[in-house]
């Protein structure tokens, strides 16, 4: 097992030597331009090294690429080596490194995995409240936004000096950043205490001429543009992290930008609570008594029809299943709750009066249809009675006529 590990490390070492000799474009290897800041280079290295990590990608090409990325970062993260590489290319860098030992593969792995390397400090997190529309939270969208932050000066690459030649080793601490100060503890007894160098502020270097662009501040103001991917059903207050996109500094790694996403407040319209949506629909008094059918335009533009027969009490809530918010990172939807607001008119028109009068008459059990039927029945009865009376009168008349004729016949016989 030990022989296999040594063989692997030796292979990587040989590959590293081959990469150095090949004259690679280190900027192209990391995917950055020649004016990239130290923070940009560090970010690119982290991304590329994760992609070609030997423990995650076991192909021979990935291993060679990982060595190449490590070499590129080693050169471009060192201001002295980078300056030589920019001026004289890799041949000049070779001459500069002549007589020096090639990078130790053990140290390379140790630094990469963080085994012996002290973890670099991370800058503060930048928390921003960000509003999107409820429609974006319902359907999903890509929303652009801008953030003002500080980035390393492109001219001096965060050194604060006008040029690399203006950076000198501090004479007060000989580049150590600290001094040993002799202090008396007791009479006749002294102790040495290590303190931060007051001449260089602990950096070990001093600047003779400051950068004209950042005036020695090492950072400049910058407005960065980003895109937020709003996922359908994203919860209120959901936090989206943009790693390493906060303020930059040569003293620490950039912190994270955290967007706390909320839907913008609007008057009226849809309201949200978790996966449920709420809507208030206004109806008239005639609709509250006789029923209605209304169309509601949903957040995605669809038409949702709500209807109700019979009476509707003020404040009545109707549940429309499956028309709420999408379930975040899941399937299905919540429900839509429609609350009805009944509005009484200030005046009643004739048409509305008649409509309501008929409605109340039906509810009282004496609707117009029933009245007409009864009237017809009464008329029919009257007609039948009149006809019977007429027939009786005609019969009586005939009998009377017969009686008058009979006495005359009797007289003739006599």
From TrEMBL:
Keywords: Chaperone, Metal-binding, Repeat, Signal, Zinc, Zinc-finger. One of its GO terms (biological process) is response to heat. Residues 396-407 have a biased composition (Acidic residues). Residues 1-22 form the signal peptide. GO terms for molecular function: ATP binding; Hsp70 protein binding; unfolded protein binding; zinc ion binding. Residues 378-395 have a biased composition (Basic and acidic residues). The keyword Zinc applies. A zinc finger (CR-type) spans 140-223. It holds the Pfam family DnaJ_C. Residues 362-414 are annotated as: Disordered. InterPro entries: DnaJ (IPR012724), DnaJ_C (IPR002939), DnaJ_domain (IPR001623), DnaJ_domain_CS (IPR018253), DNJA1/2-like (IPR044713), HSP40/DnaJ_pept-bd (IPR008971), HSP_DnaJ_Cys-rich_dom (IPR001305), HSP_DnaJ_Cys-rich_dom_sf (IPR036410). Residues 140-223 form the CR-type domain. Residues 25-89 form the J domain. This is Chaperone protein DnaJ. It comes from Rhizoctonia solani AG-3 Rhs1AP.
